[in-house]
Amino acid sequence: MKKQLLCICSFILLASFIGFGQTGPGGVGTTDGSSSLRVWLKSDDIDADGDITDNPTNGTPVSTWSDYSGNANNYTQTGGNRPTYNTTGTFDAVNFNSALAAPQFMNGSIAGSYTNASAYFVLNPVNTGNSHSLFDNTTASMRVEQWLNTSRVGFTRYGVADYSTTIASPFGTNAILSYHKAAGSANLNVRVNGATQTLNIGSTTAGIPYDRIGRNSTGADEASGDFLEILLYNNRLNSAQTIIVDNYLSAKYGSIAIPTNVYNEDDVAAGNYDHDVAGIGRIDASNLHNDAQGTGIVRMLNPSGLGNNEFLMWGHDNGDLLMSNTTDIPSRIDSRLDRVWRVSEVSTTGAAVDVGSVDIRFDITALTGVVAAPFLRLLVDTDNDGSFSDETPISWPTLVSGNIYSFTGVTALTNNVRFTLATGKQTVITNRKITYRVKGN
């Protein structure tokens, strides 16, 4: 049995962001510092080195939470004000305990606020009787609890006013909180799981702060509970991008409720395709995202029929990136990846749609063994019976650049189907004067 290992690597161009490599959350933004993604903190890779096996042990004080965005905007702390690493929950987390005498908070390597921005927090906050903040600086604070015992999410402009939503603080549960503000607007859109509300914060120049997580203030404005992931863009995401990032976070953290769910392959009944979720989509001509890769090895782009309110999202089952499956394969295939992806191709109401043909790219930079790249095949479970053995392989990928290969104009993807990568058989013909290989189907 021959095994080949694939790595995660790509270079992607998207008109709504500057630069290449849309490897940001859900495929929105880049991780090379060239896009509007300015901060990306992930508790499952706290040192942002790409290795999720070297995180701290339970209870370890966290001195540095490293930035994954490519901007080195790390958050740090020393001494007794450090949060601790928590591995006792469903997901590893950075835990801020606001019940302790010393406030726990982390300072960013950058300071200020963005008047045109989107910020996301995935956390499980704890109600310790204090008011609780998220990002904070000397002028403003985003609040998971607006003020003491109000149990309402909000926003504060210090010395000006408190702005409270009617959305309940999600104490004791994994939640996605996000704040969105456009340049020139006094409106701040606040989203908590499936709820959304717009606040008028009285100023177009007031912005989303990012100096620190929590505040050095005993009894008030402290960070509280387990923080799982934090994102900050210095550009208000368009509505299609907001939906894509929502779905990426929801799938990753246990199907958290969100306002618009366009990816259901993360459900138990669908097989838990929770990993490296990314997507393309369109609300209208001004709100679209049509080229994405995210944290995985698959990039999709150039949809030929992406209409208003339509999305194509994909994620995988976390199978090994090894060409070791030799049983569930059609004839003329040598082996396929253990990893399998599944797609949701739906409207914003959840109805199946057809976004047309798409280009599907794989980066095979780390592919090893005797199988040559021209033998790569795309397998799509077109009848959605859970088996690839009865499918016709899609052949002849084209070389894009480096080791990136593209299956161009693929029409086989439909809502809920699975796909994976395989290698065709090689037939060796030999006589005393010549040896050559014939490409399989």
What can you tell me about this protein's structure?
It contains 1 helix and 32 strands. It is mainly beta and 441 residues long. Residues 1-21 and 432-439 have low confidence and may be disordered. A hairpin with a 4-residue loop joins strand 31 and strand 32 (435-439). It has one helix at residues 239-252, and strands spanning 37-42, 64-65, 75-76, 84-86, 93-96, 106-108, 113-114, 117-124, 132-136, 140-145, 152-157, 161-168, 175-181, 187-192, 195-200, 208-209, 212-213, 225-233, 275-284, 287-289, 291-292, 298-301, 310-316, 333-336, 341-347, 358-363, 376-380, 398-401, 404-410, 418-424, 426-430, 435-439. The chain folds into 2 domains: 37-233, Jelly Rolls (Sandwich); 262-428, Chondroitinase Ac, Chain A, domain 3, CATH 2.60.220.
Percent helix, as a range, is under 10%
Task: Give the CATH topology of the largest domain.
Answer: Jelly Rolls
CATH class of the largest domain: Mainly Beta
Which architecture of the largest domain does the CATH hierarchy give at level 2?
A: Sandwich
Number of helices: 1
Low-confidence stretches: 1-21, 432-439
> Number of DSSP strands?
32
What class would the helix/strand composition place it in? Answer: mainly beta
Oligomer, anyone?
single chain
What portion of the residues fall into strands of 2 or more residues? 35-45%
Taking all Cα atoms into account, the compactness measure Rg is 23 Å
Largest sheet: 8 strands, antiparallel
Mean pLDDT: 90
* Shape annotation: globular
Head-to-tail CA distance between termini? 20 Å
Structurally, how many domains make up the residues?
2
